[in-house]
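The protein record passed on for reference:
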Amino acid sequence: MEIWNTRTKSCVSKFQYAHGRQRAVNCTHSSSYIFFQRESGEMIRWSTRSESDSGVYSHADDIIDVVIDKADQFLYTLGYQKGKFYKWDLESMTQLTVIDLGKGYEGLVISHDDRFIIASDYGKKRLTNINLKTDQIISIQDKQPYNPATLTITLDSKFVAICQGNYSPKLYVLHLETLQIFKILEEHKQATVWFIAPTLDGRYLISRNSQETIIWDALTFHCILFSYESISA
């Protein structure tokens, strides 16, 4: 992993990950801190001001994902080996809540209104919705007809959009709170759709594989633009 200063265009920190699933990295919205795991059983808080570690905290599991609320008040981590979800006070780095989700979960997506986090398990086709106001699981959907490879939440925090990677070109749109299927989008002709995200104004969603890009209306989920890029030999 490398951390670069974009002003000086220089690498300010570099290290080799220890063995294990430790790909998680995220930064506060104020850009004051970056959180990641360097060694098993620890979480690093790295200061962008001093360009050095500002804290090393014990973590009970390899960190597979980390997300932060918009107020930079809470930090949420997902452990890979034990399958537990952790909530931290970001200022004091005190662990507040632990929820046992079960092994296999690999991703966290937080809603834009900071009310919900969706945990995803690609292998077992599972999604779990956690209410961040009560710290309770409110919905679990497993053995679904889709594989949740990449998830995004619409800017209005009403829907979850899912692409399935190598599994299928179909995209699924779910109601955020219940995780019930709202719509299936079948305009992609090829699989390997790994990218889906909203535009900054929230009006559109963009999905993409190696050759196809689609722009969707984020309210109706109608296809507005389909673009195909041929790859010459």
Observations:
- The mean pLDDT is 93.
- Residues 31 and 48 are 7 Å apart (CA to CA).
- The radius of gyration is 18 Å.
